[in-house]
Amino acid sequence: MTIHNALSIVKEPGGYLQFLISEMSECPKFDKMCKLIKNRIYMDYQASTPVDQRVIEAMKPFFFDHPGNPHSSDHAFGWEANAAIDEATQKIASAIVADPDEIIFTSGATEGNNLAIIGAAGYASADRRRILVSSIEHKSVFAAAYAASEQFDLVIEQLPVDHNGIIRLDILEERLATDVLLVSVMTVNNEIGTIQPVKDVTSLCRNVGALIHTDAVQALTAMPLDVNELDVDFLSLSAHKLYGPKGIGALFIRRDVQRLVKPLIYGGGQQNGLRAGTLPVPLCVGFGAAIELVTSADAVMERIKIRALRDQFIEQLNLITTNIHINGASGDLRHPGNANICFRSLDAHELIGALQPFVAASTGAACTSGIPEPSHVLRAIGLSDTDARASIRFSIGRFTSGIDIHESIDALHEVMNKIKPCKTGRGL
What we know:
16 helices; globular; alpha/beta; single chain
């Protein structure tokens, strides 16, 4: 094949796959590899989930048939859009047992985390100058906390976790005092899937009057959420982690705390004056549809199915290699779709690269892509840099099948036999 022909194929819709198939046509395993390429296996649900077709159908009318600005109050198109926003808001509020006026739409969890942390810091009193965050938080929590520190002269302290990634409540209790403004502990970790005892955290924080924020982006695919039971002041959500569209999230802000939050975005005073700007109606509708599905009566059975597939994946992996270790907590203390695995003596980036384009997984949080350092989460639970660099997060979800599990194991088996073990620096 000439370079010109190759480029013309690649530029066509689906051309990348056509190009690969044409190049492998002489391969002895051509039939098997074609099947894998055409049925690529997605195992990176904790980075982003596929959008459920039912969510897409709910969104479609609001791209053309109902084009109104939800803040236009003079005509029926605006009323229709505003009614759609109200319905989506109600669905999100119901999903976490909140009231609709406590839901603030954002562009995603990063903005929500920033609004909670920097917004609270903006009205910090002279006698509350400390913010405590767990050592395995999402990068957007760390970044927001340190931005708040610089802007408002606050002190940021990280709270350690144990080898399972569970926050050390004894150390949290030691650090808490009446000068603590805010504590941020995520509900479910995005890398190792550990579920935190948020209710215990809030109980300790209430004793000193500190505000509590939890990044709950990964939580609703693992467990039900009740903001009253958790007793949190802020809770961040993102639609694309629960089969909804990218670009939309929400921040729960408890009603009596809203007066203590300084906005990050100013304009027309929308959303109780806490976040200005025209709301993206299709995305809000999609978020509402997605969260309704993920908290429906079928959600429990879905989580059971996902857990079974995850366990099947680990069991089959153990049959092809004994040189692995599962990072993080086990049982009910772990997200049902998460399998963060250390492949001792192998380089994780090389292994994932060898799996392309057949199996999608990741070496850490998507937000840290391009950062050439071991995962801060894995180091916080005690892994060496070597083991952290040998670790891969596989995460499965609603559309994962038993066949996907079987074929991903086949693909892993094949590439692991071809990769040479690391001798120094990058492996044991």
